[in-house]
Write a structure and sequence with these properties.
2 domains; two-stranded antiparallel sheet; Glyco_hydro/deAcase_b/a-brl
C-alpha cells in the first residue's frame, strides 16, 4: 500500500496524514460495502490517534471520533488540550467523544471499561460524573467482555438474552 515504507507499523500515529487518509478511507469503504450504510464514526485501535488522524477524518467526512483516552499515552499526544479531553466537545468540525476516566482507590487514572472495572468502581465513577455535571459518560467495551469466559455464549449474569448497546447520536 505504501511502497516507500512497506513494513507494517503498529499504530495509526506512525503514519503521516496522507497515509492515514488512505488507511481510514480503505476501512471506511470496506465497511460501507459490507453494510450498505455510510460510516459516520471512528475509533483508532489502541486509541492511537493524533492531529493527523482528526484531519484525516475531516477530509473523509467522518464527523464523530472516540479515539481520545487520556489514560493511553499514545492517544492525542500532540493535542495541546489533551489533559482536558474528558467530555464530549466539538473541535474543528468534529464531534469528539473521549472515553470517560476516573480515579481509582489508589488515585490512578483509569478508563471506564466494562470488563476492567468492578461494579462499585463503575457506580462511583458514574455518580461522580453526575455530581460534576458531565453531559455524557462514555464506556469502553469489547465484544468479548459480555461472553462467558472460554465460550461464545452470553454470560448468564446478563440474563442470557441478546445485549443491545444504546447508540449515542449527538
Amino acid at each position: 500500500m505504501f511502497p516507500a515504507r512497506p513494513e507494517k507499523r503498529q499504530h495509526l500515529t506512525y503514519y503521516d496524514r496522507a497515509e492515514q487518509v488512505r488507511l481510514i478511507e480503505l476501512g471506511r469503504d470496506l465497511l460501507k460495502d459490507a453494510t450498505g450504510a455510510p460510516v459516520t464514526a471512528f475509533r483508532a485501535g489502541s486509541f492511537a490517534a493524533n492531529g493527523d488522524t482528526l484531519a484525516a477524518l475531516r477530509t473523509l467526512g467522518i464527523g464523530i471520533d472516540s479515539s481520545i483516552n487520556i489514560t493511553a499515552s499514545i492517544s492525542g499526544s500532540d493535542l495541546t488540550e489533551r489533559a482536558s479531553l474528558v467530555a464530549p466537545l466539538s473541535r474543528d468540525g468534529l464531534q469528539l467523544i473521549p472515553i470517560s476516566v476516573f480515579r481509582d482507590g489508589l488515585g490512578r487514572m483509569r478508563q471506564a471499561q466494562v470488563g476492567a472495572c468492578g461494579f462499585t468502581e463503575m457506580t462511583g465513577a458514574l455518580m461522580a460524573a453526575e455530581r460534576l455535571g458531565y453531559s455524557a459518560f462514555t464506556l469502553l467495551s469489547h465484544n468479548f467482555e459480555l461472553l462467558r469466559s472460554g465460550s461464545s455464549q452470553p454470560d448468564p449474569c446478563l440474563g442470557g438474552g441478546a445485549f443491545r448497546a444504546p447508540v449515542c447520536v449527538p
